[in-house]
């Protein structure tokens, strides 16, 4: 009898250990979003050849935006509208972007136009936008439009004083923040370093959101990195994170309670300079 009990206990311990290990290995999530999709055939094709968990952010004004939208959808890949927004600098943005001083109707019209082009998008993130995302009025208009269309928002955090995420939650829009830029420097060693930084961030916080661009060095690092991803890191699409994001419903009256920020919205953010304008 004692032998049977000991055997049962041993089996239970082995099973419990295996179960705990399998759960723990899957708990660290890494989401990668590739911005500026729709301009370059070769680089876009390389991105779309990667696992479908790599999300793509398509600029509506890009010449191949509609085609990339269809291709990504056919793969079951998460798609974002990469919306051009006014930066602090005088860098020109693409047609159809958002500028300071726009009315609610103008913002809504631009969002509608973008969604008609990138019609399979489940969310939006900002292309540049260091001035736009820091403007409460413009962000209120934008989040109202996104809420009506049931679109999520990813703040690329091109400026530290962005109010986009805060206003998104106030308007009932699911919103998350970028944690790591993979290729603000295009040097291969720097991109490799940032990819490892994303893995370490995921291990520390449980989730990491990294943004990159369809460039040769970024593509090379992602191809190698994804093929050798550590067992404790799970590659996920943005939809996986947004669906689990708690949202504060919009309230017409005074908020009685405060909400702690989601783990993916906490600092520190990787410092980043002013980003480039229209891709060359």
Structure report:
InterPro entries: Divergent_DAC, Glyco_hydro/deAcase_b/a-brl. This is Divergent polysaccharide deacetylase family protein. By secondary structure, the chain is α/β, with parallel strands linked by helices. Helices cover 40% and strands 16% of the residues. Strands 1, 2, 3, 4, 5, 6, 7, 8 and 9 form a nine-stranded parallel beta sheet that branches. Helix 5 links the parallel strand 4 and strand 5 (152-155). Helix 4 packs across helix 5 (136-148) and helix 7 (188-205) packs across helix 8 (216-227).
Topology:
Elements: H1 2-25, E1 28-37, H2 41-48, E2 55-58, H3 65-74, E3 79-85, H4 104-117, E4 123-128, H5 136-148, E5 152-155, H6 164-170, E6 175-177, E7 180-181, H7 188-205, E8 207-212, H8 216-227, E9 233-236, H9 238-242
Parallel strand pairs: 1-2, 1-8, 1-9, 2-3, 3-4, 4-5, 5-6, 7-8
Average pLDDT rating? 86
How many strand elements? 9
Shape: globular
Structural class: alpha/beta
Proportion in β-strands: 15-25%
Q: Span from first to last CA?
A: 76 Å
Proper CATH architecture? Alpha-Beta Barrel
Q: Assembly state here?
A: single chain
Q: Could you say how many structural domains there are in total?
A: 1
By DSSP (H or I, 4+ residues per run), the number of helices equals 9
Instruction: Identify the CATH homologous superfamily.
Output: Glycoside hydrolase/deacetylase
Question: Helix coverage percent of residues?
Answer: 25-40%
CATH topology: TIM Barrel
Protein name: Divergent polysaccharide deacetylase family protein
GO biological process, one term: carbohydrate metabolic process
InterPro entries: Divergent_DAC, Glyco_hydro/deAcase_b/a-brl
């Amino acid at each position: 009898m004692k032998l049977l009990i000991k055997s049962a206990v041993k089996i239970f311990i082995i099973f419990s250990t295996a179960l705990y290990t399998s759960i723990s290995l899957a708990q660290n999530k890494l989401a990668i979003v590739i911005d500026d999709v729709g301009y370059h055939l070769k680089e876009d094709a390389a991105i779309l050849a990667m696992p479908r968990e790599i999300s793509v952010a398509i600029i509506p004004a890009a010449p191949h935006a509609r085609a990339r939208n269809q291709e990504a959808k056919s793969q079951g890949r998460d798609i974002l509208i990469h919306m051009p927004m006014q930066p602090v600098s005088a860098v020109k943005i693409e047609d159809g972007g958002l500028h300071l001083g726009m009315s609610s109707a103008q913002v809504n019209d631009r969002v509608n136009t973008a969604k008609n082009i990138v019609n399979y998008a489940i969310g939006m993130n900002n292309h540049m936008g260091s001035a736009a995302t820091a403007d409460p009025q413009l962000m209120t208009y934008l989040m109202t439009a996104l809420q009506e269309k049931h679109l999520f928002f990813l703040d690329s955090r091109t400026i530290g004083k962005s109010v986009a995420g805060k206003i998104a939650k106030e308007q009932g829009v699911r919103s998350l923040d970028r944690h790591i830029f993979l290729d603000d420097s295009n040097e291969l060693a720097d991109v490799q370093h940032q990819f490892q930084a994303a893995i370490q961030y995921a291990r520390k916080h449980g989730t990491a959101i990294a943004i990159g661009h369809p460039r040769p060095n970024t593509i090379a690092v992602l191809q190698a990195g994804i093929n050798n991803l550590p067992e404790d890191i799970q590659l996920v699409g943005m939809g996986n994170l947004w669906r689990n994001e708690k949202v504060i419903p919009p309230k017409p009256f005074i908020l009685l309670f405060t909400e702690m920020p989601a783990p993916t919205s906490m600092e520190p953010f990787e410092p980043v300079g002013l980003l480039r304008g229209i891709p060359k």
